[in-house]
Amino acid sequence: MSGKIRFAPSPTGFLHEGHLLSALYVWAAAKKWGLKIHLRIEDHDQSRMRPAYVEGIYEDLAWFGFHYDSESIQSKRWPLYEQAISKLEAQGLVYPCYCSRKQLEAENPKSETGEIVYQGKCLTRRETWFDRLTNREGRREIEPHNLRFIVPDKVIQWHDLRLGDFAENPKLQCGDFPIRDREGQWTYQFAVCVDDIDEGITHIVRGEDIRSSTARQIALREALGAKEPPIYLHHALISDSTGKKLSKRELAYSLRQEREAGSSPETLLGRVCFKAKLQESPTPLSLDQAISLIESRI
Ligand SMILES: [Zn+2]
To answer: Helix-strand-coil percent breakdown of the chain, rounded to 5?
Structure first.
């Protein structure tokens, strides 16, 4: 099989064990299926990224010995996102939302996962906005708003190689969702879809905490003209001894701090595989051993 897979960290902090496990899954999947590996730095939110974290990603990957075939950084791809949004606007699939966080909380129901399901309040204001948009420069004078994508009200069926079949309606999961936020930053959901299509990604392997984004991403991909969805695999996350997912605070100890404290790559690789229940003890592993171990479980 030929194709391309991506490892796509956000430079909003230094990489931690959770990222290391994800990287191992991506490299293991690439080995198993003979895929090219693409490194994408997801700095779509310029207000949260820091250059030091971008450097950190390169340093950490090199220290472990992860090699990739190509790379991109989202901040250099702004024209592509503008183009994509125009494509959605041309289909009438975008509208501005002026609701504050407080209003969103108060006026919309929540899904069983606790996510706000936007009911489309601002959809009715769309016409005025499009009139004013004829002068695109005039957009700056308009009150703060995000831009939402109109999701189709339909069940989307998709398959996960580990978790099986899903049938989900994004209209009921989240409703119309933001593709650009109030500060003018592209959202994760939007940038990731534009990039996956443009970069020819055929396989998406990522943590199961992002699984619920899949149906809405498939809907957005379709609107952007993608021919078919990629192959998905959402891997299990590192959990504590009681099986609960580790909190951000528990994962706060970065790989960089471990490195500076004198840990070897082998120690960290062995430990992360142990914590992910891929081996019985925290026996140190070389990168090849860790990748092979995961490859045999995919
Ligand atoms: Zn609104």
So the answer is: 45, 20, 40
